[in-house]
Structure formats: structure tokens, C-alpha cells
Amino acid sequence: MRNPEDRTPSQPTPATLKRTVGFGFLVLYGLGTIVGGGFYALTGKVAAVSGINAPVAFLLAGLLALLTGLSYAELSSRFPHSAGSARYVEAAFGGNSLAAVTGWLIICTGIVSAATLCVATIGFLQDLVNAPYALSLAALVVIITIVAVVGINEAVSAVVIITVIEVGALVYICLVKGDVVLASPERLVDVFIPTGIPAWSGIFLAAFLAFYAFIGFEDMVTLAEEVKDARRTVPRAIITSVLCTLVIYAAVATIAVLAVEPAALANARTPLAVVIADEGWFSRAGIGIVSILTGINGALVQVIMAARVVYGMSKRGQAPVWLGAINPRTRTPIRASLLAGAVILGLALTFDLATLAKITSAIILVIFAMVNLSLLIIKRDQAAPSGDIAVPQPVPLLGALACTALLLFQVWNLTV
Fold first, then answer.
1. Alpha helix positions (H), 82-177
2. CB environment 336-359: b (16+ within 10 A), e (fewer)
3. Which of 22, 41, 116, 325 is most deeply packed, by most CB within 10 A?
């Protein structure tokens, strides 16, 4: 009889992603993907279009984002995989072709968005210090990529820390300037009850712009294979993150339009700094520093997301296998992360901020429309397993229509 120790060793078990992320961390990660440079930069532009009704525009944009967020919540419960949107499209339409296209669109969105945020961050930095553009940009991309490949706990921890800071800055604005609401509560009627067609027209136009500030919740599903009890945790974290963001944006936007004339917000490069201008230099500089952190935070999240979508797609034969390899020590897709970092640097050095932002927005709207349509088809053809989150049928239908309308608006806006 052979000694067990004489048996031929089995092949080593392939490294897999590590399930260490809980509900609290995932909610903070979600807030980090949504709250960021979009809101910090767009508040003034939204006020320029909708005036004192800017909070209503943010509320409307948030409700539109919530429709797609609910679709992602149900889909993430049905399919708790890192490939995210690509997996949902594959389940709905069958075959690999359309799913592969969706996956690569998601990867492009993450990479272009990260490049956008890196360019914006260096712009924030140059407002504070005289930093060489190309060198600073290269250093930023390298640092973000290193953090992304070190490990998911370290990366998510960095995102959580920065998220606490950037959300804390918005809470600080509410605390130090909240008295403007108490001082003139009657003005809330003017803010939240618009009258006349021109007012509503401005609100709808501004809502399309404000929608960009809510993009990011879709990245949460790419961590599904690193989340504890993903079927329950991911959907609840998505809904919680979007709702929390909606409340924060509405509160800060309300204070902003009551504390500062909309025209002054519209003309400011850092509108939130204008809101607390009378609090002194320290507060204004603090908002500038937080703006830098929001850019870093958002770019890091995009690198994490893009690398994990590549990993999920490689497992299904939709991306090169070598890109999906997991490093045994860090348990992260290092090759995909490094490649993403290199492409991000190239884009950031080649294109300006506005061009990168427009590309990101257009791609994400296509993806959102496809995901909502996917849920419609899946709900028609498949029964939801017991215990899963299930949204009413009109939710993905309205989500698909809203995303299509936003995309058509962008196309129309380019032609006029």
C-alpha cells in the first residue's frame, strides 16, 4: 500500500479574488465612486442653467440615476460576478459578441473616466502650487496604479478614507452654512416649487448635466467576487449609496443657492469654495485640497473597476487569458491594472478635460440603456430566485427610456 505522502502532488489551485469586503465598506466605496469631482465642479454649471432651482435639478437627476441603480441592484443579486454589465447583457441576449462589446465599453469608460479625473486633479493641484503638468500627471497615475495592484483591502481602504474626507467636506458646508436655511425658510418655496414653463425647462436641461455627478454606482458590481454574501450585500449597498448621495447633493445644493447668487456660482471655477468664502482662507484652501482628493479617489476606483471587468471577461473567453491572471501574493489582477494605468497616462497626456468627459458620458449612457434592456428581457424569460431583490417591470423600462433620452439630448446638443 502506498504511503499518502508518496502521491503525486496535485496541480496548484489557481488564485482567486479574496472575499473581504463587507456592507459598510462597500457603501463607502460606492459613495466614493459617485461623490467626487462631478458634483464639486458641476454645482455652478447646474445653477447657471436652472438658477435657484438647482436642488430640484439634482433631485431629478438622482431619481433618474436611481432607476438604473435599481436595475443594477436586481442584476447584481442574480449574477454576482466581477464582469458586471457584460455578464448581464450576455444573460439577456445570449452569446459572447454583444457581451464582449459591452465589457470593452465598460473598460473604456473606466479608463477614459480615470484619465478625465487625473487631468482634473492636476488642474486642482496647479491652482494651489506651481507643479509641472506632465511630470505631476505621470506621478499621479503611477501612484494610483500601485495602490490598485497592492491589494483590494488596501485599495478599498484608501477609497474609504478619501470618501470620508470628501463627504465630510460636504457635511462641513452644511454645518457652517446651514443657518441660511433657518434664516429664510420661506425661500425654500421658491427653491422647491418652480413655477412656469421656463423654470421647468431650465430644470430639465440642468438635470441632464447633473446626471454626470451620479455616475459611478455601476462600478460597485465589479467587486461582487470580493464581497461577503454578494447576493444580498451588493444590491443593498448600491441602493444605499445612491440614496445617500441624493440626500447629500440636495442639501448642499440648497445651501449653495441660498447662500450665493446662482450667477456667482456659475462664474466660479470652484463653486463650493465660493459658498464658504466668508469662512476664511483655511476653508477655501481646504475645499481645494478635498477637490484634489476627490479626483484621486475617483481615478483609483476606475482603475480597480476596469481591471476587474477584464478579469471577469477573461474567465468567459471575452478577453485575453493573460490579462485576467491573478497574482498569488496580492490576489489582484496586476497585469490588467498595469495595462489600464499605461493607457490612462497616454490618454491624459493626449486629450483635454472636456473631450475626455464627453467621451465618458456618451459611453456610459449606452451601457446604462443596454443594462436596463437586459433586465427587461431577463425578467420576462427567467424567474427571480427566492430571496433576491426584484424591482417592478416599469423600473428598467423607464431607466432605458431615460438613458436613451439623455443620450439623444447629448447628440442633439452637439448638432446645435
1. 85-93, 97-128, 133-150, 152-177
2. bbbbbbebbbebbeebebeebbbb
3. 116
Q: How far apart are CA 17 and CA 26, in angstroms?
A: 16
Q: Tell me the HSE value of 297 on the side-chain side, using a 13 A CA sphere.
A: 30
pLDDT in tens, the chain (416 residues): 444 444 444 555 555 555 666 787 788 878 877 887 678 777 888 888 888 999 999 998 899 889 999 999 888 888 776 556 777 888 888 866 787 888 788 888 889 888 888 888 887 787 778 888 899 999 999 988 888 777 666 666 766 787 788 888 898 888 888 888 878 777 888 888 888 878 888 888 788 778 878 888 887 877 777 777 777 888 889 999 999 999 999 999 999 989 888 888 887 767 888 888 777 766 677 887 887 888 887 788 788 878 877 877 777 777 777 777 776 776 777 888 888 889 999 999 998 876 787 787 778 888 899 999 999 998 888 776 655 678 888 999 999 998 888 788 767 766 66
Domain spans of the chain? 20-385
Distance CA 252, CA 249 (A): 5
CB 332 within 8 A of CB 149: yes
Residues 6+ apart with CB under 8 A from 286: 169
| pTM of the entire predicted model | 0.77
Alpha helices (H) in 179-322, listed in sequence order? 179-183, 187-192, 197-210, 230-259, 262-266, 271-275, 281-315
Q: May I ask the CATH architecture of the domain 20-385? A: Up-down Bundle (1.20)
Beta partners for residue 235, in sequence order: none
